[in-house]
Amino acid sequence: MANRNTLHVNHLKDFSKWLTDKGWKLEKAKGEFEVLRARKGKRFFPIYTKHDSDHLSFANQFDHLVRSFLKQRKGFGDVRREKERDLQ
Q: Potential cystine with 19: which of 24, 56, 61, 79 (Cβ 3.0-4.6 Å)?
């Protein structure tokens, strides 16, 4: 099955960088709907888009990676908001 509503298209650039920091190698996407292709060892992780959707699709087996990214991203956002509050 595929997860179609967790990763927003606006997070793709940050997620790509996060993957490379975790040791994934990015490859050129293939086809009209593939927006990211990553590989680590024998694992292959493609991410797809639909032209009418704000969210990206990926296989459920990679859900833990996306959720780890979002959790870390949310944590960094909270720190940034606290710093902004301290400056006011």
A: 24
pLDDT tens for each residue of 73-86 = 887 555 445 444 44
Q: If you search the block for the tokens 């997620």, which residue do you land on?
A: 15
Q: Tokens 């940050």, residue?
A: 14
Residue 9 Cα distances to 4, 83, 84, angstroms: 11, 27, 26
DSSP structural state of residue 66? H
Domain that holds residue 46: 2-87
Q: What CATH number is given to the structural domain containing 36?
A: 3.30.310.10
pTM for this one?
Answer: 0.81
